[in-house]
Write a structure and sequence with these properties.
about 300 residues; mainly alpha; 13 helices
């Protein structure tokens, strides 16, 4: 397939790929919670992303001829932002519930439009801002109501910091993916992520007993490598390459409600009326970001974006 045809196909699949990524991540919250309970954070991240980098490097071996210094810089910046985000999110998950962790991580959907404004000098329109706040309100209702609405705890603070760096990662992908092969960038992102994680292992010097690598943990690690990393993160980067950062942030925030759905199915969380109201607000936020409510103004050629 020619580069032009490939770009056309990927551009049409951008939104579905991002949504598919959020479904996979929603399921991974339960897997991450069980894995982080037996494996130290940096060990978990180092193993996960080393394996992911090796898999993608082999799969996309014919594409490596395009790699140059700018690819290395872009991949390293993306990997660093994602490493810091995941480290804080994973440490936060050890001290809070999966639902609250999903919510506080998703704070990036409000941060991204303004952060991208600072970096790229592109002002978010009123629909981007409205969608971001609708989204965060919906996620609050979905994730931290009922039994989850306990007092703010240290795990929540760590997760919020992780959310900020997830916003940095989204902006970094938008900046460095333009005009570059997203498959090679993603592989370099994973490789740099793995390097930072192994540095974390050396610094923390947390011992790991071979006995922890039982069948359950190995299954969880395989799921995180194949689906949550090689699959979902690659889908995210492809989708973001062809989607405005503010819109991508709102779509990516679907991870939170999917996380709650899988927690209800597999971790005994109970649905509430407020949860369903939250789902409705998140859906409205996605419609706002994707369409800017243009279907409400059929007589106009465009909708005011200022």
């Amino acid at each position: 397939m020619s580069p032009q045809k490939e770009s056309g196909v990927l551009a049409r699949l951008a939104t579905p790929l991002i949504i598919l990524a959020t479904i996979i991540w929603g399921s991974s919250f339960v897997v991450m919670k069980s894995s982080v309970d037996v494996l130290p954070t940096f060990w978990l991240l180092a193993i996960r992303f080393s394996a992911s980098a090796i898999v993608l490097a082999i799969v996309f071996l014919p594409r490596w001829k395009v790699c140059d210094r700018q690819y290395l810089i872009g991949g390293t910046v993306m990997g660093f932002c994602l490493f810091v985000a995941y480290a804080f999110q994973t440490y936060g998950l050890a001290g809070t519930t999966p639902g609250k962790n999903a919510f506080f991580t998703a704070i990036y959907c409000v941060i991204v439009p303004f952060l991208y404004w600072v970096i790229a000098r592109r002002r978010p329109d009123r629909f981007n801002i409205l969608a971001a706040f609708l989204c965060i309100a919906g996620i609050a209702l979905v994730s931290i109501t009922g039994d989850n609405a306990s007092a703010f705890c240290p795990g929540d603070v760590l997760t919020l910091i992780g959310g900020f760096f997830f916003a940095c990662h989204i902006v970094a992908v938008a900046k460095y993916s333009e005009g570059r092969d997203i498959f090679i960038l993603t592989t370099l992102q994973f490789a740099s992520f793995a390097v930072f994680s192994w540095i974390g292992v050396l610094v923390t010097r947390t011992p790991v007993s071979p006995e922890v690598f039982n069948q359950s943990l190995l299954f969880g690690l395989a799921y995180l490598v194949v689906f949550a990393s090689c699959g979902a993160l690659l889908f995210q980067n492809i989708g973001q390459k062809y989607t405005a950062p503010a819109t991508a942030a709102v779509l990516l925030s679907l991870e939170a409600p999917f996380g709650v759905v899988f927690s209800i199915l597999f971790a005994n969380e109970r649905p509430t009326v407020l949860m369903f109201l939250g789902f409705a607000l998140i859906f409205l936020a996605v419609v706002c970001s994707e369409t800017k409510f243009s279907f409400l103004f059929p007589g106009k050629k465009g909708v005011d974006k200022g």
